[in-house]
Design brief:
Blueprint: E1 16-18, H1 23-26, E2 33-35, H2 40-51, H3 55-71, H4 74-85, H5 95-98
Parallel strand pairs: 1-2
Length: about 110
């Protein structure tokens, strides 16, 4: 995917996720519905809340999902990392310049 492209993530449906790992930081009451891991009753509750969401809630969640998809765009994050941490990887030219070790090629 070329830099600047957007990762296509369906953001038209409510997100339901468990609170395991890093998902708990992303899927909050503002961005979706969460359930405790290995807890069927908690999952059923999250599903019921998602199904009962009104038009305003769905619009809010849709906007939050689009914002998250843009914020966590893989290409943008990798590009920014490489520019900040390893800028030589972003330079154009012969391969010896991209390695970070410029050598004298005149001999």
């Amino acid at each position: 995917m070329p830099h600047g492209s957007t990762l296509l993530i369906p953001v038209e449906r409510p997100v339901i996720a468990t609170t395991a790992g890093g998902l708990a930081e992303l899927v909050t009451d503002q961005t979706g519905y969460s359930a405790r891991p290995a807890d069927p009753a908690s999952l059923a509750d999250a599903l019921a809340r998602a199904l009962a969401a009104d038009t305003a809630d769905r619009a809010r969640l849709r906007a939050a999902g689009r914002h998250l998809a843009a914020t966590y765009d893989y290409d943008r994050i990798v590009h920014r990392f490489l520019c900040d941490i390893a800028p030589w990887t972003m330079r154009t030219g012969p391969a010896h310049y991209r390695t970070g070790h410029v050598t004298d090629q005149s001999t």
